């Protein structure tokens, strides 16, 4: 059995509620008709419907106008609250003030995007939105989309393809690759690092699933070459640490290499094989597209990515 009286609720539409509030305020049907742009007969019909639904006269005719009954006066603040809440639903979102905003935004990304963007985002938040907090979780594509679907995360960063219509993506940039190794590695010279030398040395790869093969191997196959993969690591920063302390080399996304090569004392250069770039996007669920806090963080991430692009061009 339904907890609602569906018949009464269907008859109690918004226009009737607006008439009720205006009658309590003006106490004259003609003034209400003028305010709401309705005819006097429409006001009369609305009054009759209200009396039938609520089981009370609501307004008593007096020489000076319409006097609300005690029940009508009791109802007025409750109906006003209902109308106010409905107004909030149909109104545009309130302007977001990052300086005074509080709350937490949850972001999903692999450690490459985390390391490349979250420190810059936090620096911007410290100046512009000091009370906002971040939770960052290391989700790949499948888990990130599931988390967005179930309200377990708010934004996702990474390489996403063939997104269902319930997700919206904002392209941040096209990501390429760099080969990285310790600075005194025998191959730390772009003229020396040809395809054969590249394939014959030991490689570290990043694969959360533990795969020992990747996009580099597809390109080498076309050249009749095969590389020697010595270790598969789950994250990019451990890969940088690994090659800094060994003779292994790694082929990693450009941004994390360029941001952290100096930190780890590494040399990097262009790959000696052709590798396709891939888009990095910011993804949200369409149900949250009007969330002002999420939109502010999303705009900040887009701004960071575009500033990096301008810096790279210059």
TrEMBL record:
An example molecular function term from Gene Ontology annotations: DNA binding
UniProt cross-references to Gene3D superfamilies, sorted A to Z: Periplasmic binding protein-like II, Winged helix-like DNA-binding domain superfamily/Winged helix DNA-binding domain
Domain HTH lysR-type: 12-69
Keyword set, alphabetical order: DNA-binding, Nodulation, Transcription, Transcription regulation
Keyword set includes Transcription regulation: yes
InterPro entries (UniProt xref): LysR-type_TF (IPR050389), LysR_HTH_N (IPR000847), LysR_subst-bd (IPR005119), WH-like_DNA-bd_sf (IPR036388), WH_DNA-bd_sf (IPR036390), YidZ_PBP2 (IPR037402)
One Pfam family recorded for the sequence: LysR_substrate
UniProt KW DNA damage keyword: no
Family statement: Belongs to the LysR transcriptional regulatory family.
Name of the molecule in the record: LysR family transcriptional regulator
Organism: Hoeflea prorocentri
């Amino acid at each position: 059995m339904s907890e609602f009286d569906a018949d009464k609720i269907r008859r109690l539409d918004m226009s009737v509620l607006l008439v009720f509030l205006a009658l309590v305020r003006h106490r004259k049907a003609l003034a209400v008709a003028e305010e709401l742009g309705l005819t006097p007969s429409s006001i009369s019909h609305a009054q009759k419907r209200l009396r039938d639904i609520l089981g009370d006269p609501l307004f008593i005719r007096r020489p000076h106008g319409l006097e609300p009954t005690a029940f009508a006066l009791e109802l007025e603040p409750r109906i006003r609250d209902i109308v106010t809440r409905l107004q909030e639903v149909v109104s545009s979102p309130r302007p977001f003030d990052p300086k005074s905003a509080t709350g937490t935004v949850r972001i999903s990304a692999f450690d490459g995007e985390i390391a490349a963007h979250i420190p810059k985002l936090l620096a911007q938040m410290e100046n512009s939105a000091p009370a906002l907090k971040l939770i960052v979780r290391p989700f790949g594509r499948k888990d990130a989309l599931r988390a967005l679907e179930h309200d377990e995360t708010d934004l996702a960063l990474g390489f996403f393809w063939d997104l269902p219509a319930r997700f919206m993506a904002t392209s941040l940039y096209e990501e390429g690759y760099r080969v990285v190794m310790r600075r005194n590695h025998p191959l730390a010279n772009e003229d020396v690092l040809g395809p054969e030398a590249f394939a014959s040395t030991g490689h570290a790869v990043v694969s959360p699933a533990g795969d020992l093969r990747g996009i580099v191997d597809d390109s080498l196959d076309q050249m009749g070459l095969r590389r020697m993969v010595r270790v598969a690591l789950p994250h990019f920063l451990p890969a940088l640490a690994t090659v800094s302390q060994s003779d292994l080399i790694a082929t990693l996304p450009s941004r994390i290499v360029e941001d952290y090569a100096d930190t780890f004392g590494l040399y990097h250069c262009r790959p000696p094989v052709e590798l396709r770039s891939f888009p990095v996007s910011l993804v949200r669920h369409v149900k949250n597209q009007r969330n002002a806090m999420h939109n502010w963080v999303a705009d900040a991430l887009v701004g960071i990515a575009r500033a990096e692009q301008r810096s790279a061009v210059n």
